[in-house]
Amino acid sequence: MPALASKTEPGWAERVLAAPDELLIDHAHCEKKAAGTAINLIFRYPQRHFLLEPLSRLAREELVHFEQVVALLARRGVAFGFQKPAPYAGRLREGMRTHEPARLIDTLLCCALIEARSCERFQLLAETAEDPELRDLFGGLRAAEARHRGVYVDLAERLAAAEVVGERLAELAEHEARVLADSPPLPRIHA
Amino acid sequence: MPALASKTEPGWAERVLAAPDELLIDHAHCEKKAAGTAINLIFRYPQRHFLLEPLSRLAREELVHFEQVVALLARRGVAFGFQKPAPYAGRLREGMRTHEPARLIDTLLCCALIEARSCERFQLLAETAEDPELRDLFGGLRAAEARHRGVYVDLAERLAAAEVVGERLAELAEHEARVLADSPPLPRIHA
Q1: Residue B141: which of B180, B186, B177, B189 has the closest Cα?
Q2: Is A78 part of the contact surface with chain B (CB cutoff 8 Å)?
Q3: CB atoms within 10 A of CB A101
Q4: Where residue B100 sits, what CATH number does that domain have?
Q5: Which of A134, B53, B108, B179 lies 20 to 30 Å from B92 when distance is taken between CA atoms?
Q6: Rounded to 5 degrees, what are φ and ψ at A78?
Q7: What is the DSSP letter of A131?
Q8: What is the pLDDT of residues B79-115, one digit of tens each?
């Protein structure tokens, strides 16, 4: 995942795995939010035809993962419900440009960075978790997040030259690394 | 579909099929909005566990239909994009109660009515359209809308007795029939 500008610190996976149920609730919310974000992009940009099918498919895959995590929570006897989100996604958005098409490019690249960070961290979780059911879940999600990162970067490259997209991705990756470094240490994927 | 309090007037299908592309664009928006509504309910009521899996699955099915209609538009050389929506869904919402759990019950029942009306009208469209591709599409969508109506009513019956739900559904169906009767004659499923 060369997009990321920082590496997750040693001990992160052990820290968040100390509260596995809270981590799973967070992740169910993340999958739901990822689906919501993809659908919101379709609402906001219906005239950008190249976005529609890939984002709709991606939203469906996020919903499958949401259902998987909700089912796992039920098997573990954990109640899904409201949860204070990490400040990560909101702070990440503060780095986006507000004029078009830069706003759309930045939205797609921030989505790519969220997927890349999830991918990096699911790898760590899959390596660290002792519960085989959690290891399997995290390993499967890791692969999906890597694919999704590629989808978002490819879509951004429909709007600007690959070199321009790559430079902007590097800038936003620096911003993402700062946001994450400032995040309070909650048991969340992005904290 | 016994939930509906009125029958679509003769000639409706011929009228809207005079603008088939606008009708298809409308329907792509409707599928996208149906997915968005189901996901919004998951966002608003994460603690209502019985909603999560059925609504997530339903949202995924609406997205598959969205992709189908978008692909059909592309084959027909029609550009998808923004479109002035019919006032139907917004006016329908005006009939909902605002305190919980009545708000959630009414939201589910309004969704059931939208699905029931779509089902009735896709049946008419499938019988009337001359283009075999449109006939197939409308016939397939009709069956899905009937199933979705059942999903929404079943979910409402998790929140109140079937008799109470049935009475409220009948009241909201009267409201739906009035909203539709007042709708301007646009080439839309719900106009």
Answers
A1: B189
A2: no
A3: 14
A4: 1.20.1260.10
A5: B53
A6: -100, 135
A7: S
A8: 999 999 899 999 999 999 999 999 999 999 999 999 9
Taking only the tens place, the pLDDT of each residue in B167-176 is 999 999 999 9
- DSSP reduced 3-state for A112: helix
Residue A5 lies in a domain: no
Residue B46 and residue A81: Cβ atoms within 8 Å? yes
> Closest chain A residue to B56 measured between Cα atoms?
A63
Share of chain B above pLDDT 70, in %: 99
Contact A35 B36 (CB under 8 A): no
Q: How far is A7 from chain B (nearest CA, A)?
A: 31
Beta strand residue intervals within B38-99, DSSP E? none
Q: Residue B19's domain spans which residues?
A: 12-77+84-181
Q: CB-based burial of residue A190 (10 Å sphere; 0-12 exposed, 13-18 middle, 19+ buried)?
A: buried
Write out the H or E segment, with its range, that includes residue B143.
helix B132-156
Q: Report whether B139 contacts B126 (CB < 8 A).
A: yes
Taking contacts as CB-CB distances below 8 angstroms, the residues of chain A near B59 are 35, 59, 63
Q: Determine, yes or no, domain membership for A24.
A: yes
CA distances from B37 to A109, B34, B44 (A): 26, 5, 10
User: Residue B97: inside a domain, yes or no?
Assistant: yes
Q: Is B174 on the interface with A (CB under 8 A)?
A: no
Q: Which residues of A touch B82 (CB under 8 A)?
A: 46-47
Total Cβ atoms within 10 A of residue B161? 9
- A-B C-beta contacts closer than 8 Å: 77
Domains in chain A: how many in total? 1
